Amino acid sequence: MENFNEIYAKNYGIIFNYVVMKLHNTQDAEEVTNDIFLKALKYYEEYFDKTKSKFETWLYNIAKNTVIDIARKNKLDLHINVGAMKNSEGLEVFQFEDNCKTDDLIENKELKVKIDFAMNNLKPKYKRIAELYFLQDKPYKEIAILCEVPLNTVKVMINRVRTMLQADLKSCVAA
Description:
This protein has helices at residues 4-23, 26-47, 55-73, 102-120, 124-135, 140-147, 151-174. It is mainly α and 175 residues long. α1 crosses α2 (26-47), α4 (102-120) packs across α7 (151-174) and α6 (140-147) packs across α7.
């Protein structure tokens, strides 16, 4: 691996912010972020293939999988965020809460199926952008880097995706 200190300094803030967003705990996020970099250092030679992905993408996958492992281990109920979906009253919807009643959970499962269906109806270029922005909570700049497209293109594509998803999910919002 190149100079680990440089890689750590360059990527720490981005990975830390991602982990904080997912775990909602700064102290845990610091520890988890350090664990992510230790995993990257440990497995770099064996698993990283620069012909298949950029280092930053590989590092994000380690972060994502680490957060998922922690959520499973601690039985955390991390909500699914599909971003700025708004109902007819202008209120954001599709935020799955961890304290839902059984009926709400059933409705949320049904809604998740509809969201998955709407996401799968997107063209691949839009689906990738939607997953990064709405499901992985990545900022515009990171999406531009990961998808190798200009920042303004990302902004336009996210607005288009939002419009497409809102149109597909309009019946869910009204219910």
